[in-house]
Design goal:
Layout lengths: L5 H14 L9 E7 L1 H12 L7 E5 L12 E8 H10 L5 H16 L7 H21 L2 H4 L9 E3 L1
Helix pairs in contact: 1-4, 1-5, 3-4, 4-5
Length: 158
C-alpha cells in the first residue's frame, strides 16, 4: 500500500485552501483522515445522522466559541478512499486520485461557508468545485500525489 506523497499532498491542501478562500495565512492545521467504507459509515451515522458511507465529512472549527491559536486544528476532513475507488472507476472524467482531490476541495469549500443542501447552494458549490479543481489540475498531477487506488488508512496533519 502506497500512502499519499506527503509533501505534494501538503501543497495540494494549502493551494486548495487558498483557492477556497480559507485563512491559510494563519498557522492553523488541516487534519485529513483517509478511511474505508465501514469507518466512514460509522462516522456518517454518529456525526451526521445518515446511514451508509459517503465521500467526505467536514468538521470546521473556524467559527467556534474559542479563538484558534497557531497550531490548533481548524478543519478535520474524513475522506473515504473506498468511495473514491468506486467513483473514480465509474465516472468517465475522473479517476481515484482526482476523486480524492475533489473530496479535499469539497470539504474545504464547506469549511469556507459553501453549502449544498438546497438546489441554489448546490449549484454554486458545484461551480466553485469546478473552478478550484480546474486551477489545481493546471498546477499539479493528482496521480503523483495519490499513486494507486489501494485503501489509505492514515491520518495526515497539514
Amino acid at each position: 500500500m502506497q500512502p499519499p506523497r506527503r509533501t505534494q499532498l501538503k501543497k495540494l491542501i494549502l493551494r486548495a485552501a487558498e483557492l477556497s478562500r480559507l485563512p491559510v495565512e494563519q498557522e492553523l492545521l488541516i487534519n485529513i483522515t483517509f478511511v474505508g467504507d465501514r469507518t466512514m459509515a460509522a462516522y456518517n451515522q454518529d456525526y451526521v445522522g445518515h446511514e451508509g458511507t459517503t465521500d467526505v465529512i467536514t468538521f470546521c472549527y473556524l467559527e467556534g466559541d474559542e479563538p484558534l491559536l497557531p497550531g490548533d486544528v481548524a478543519i478535520d476532513l474524513m475522506i473515504c478512499a473506498d468511495f473514491a475507488i468506486r467513483e473514480g472507476a465509474e465516472r468517465k472524467d475522473s479517476c481515484y486520485a482526482r476523486e480524492l482531490a475533489l473530496y479535499i476541495v469539497h470539504g474545504l469549500l464547506h469549511s469556507a461557508g459553501e453549502d449544498d443542501l438546497d438546489p441554489v447552494s448546490r449549484k454554486r458549490m458545484r461551480r466553485r468545485e469546478r473552478e478550484v479543481m480546474k486551477k489545481l489540475e493546471q498546477e499539479m498531477d493528482f496521480s503523483g500525489i495519490f499513486p494507486d487506488n489501494k485503501k489509505i488508512k492514515r491520518s495526515i496533519d497539514i
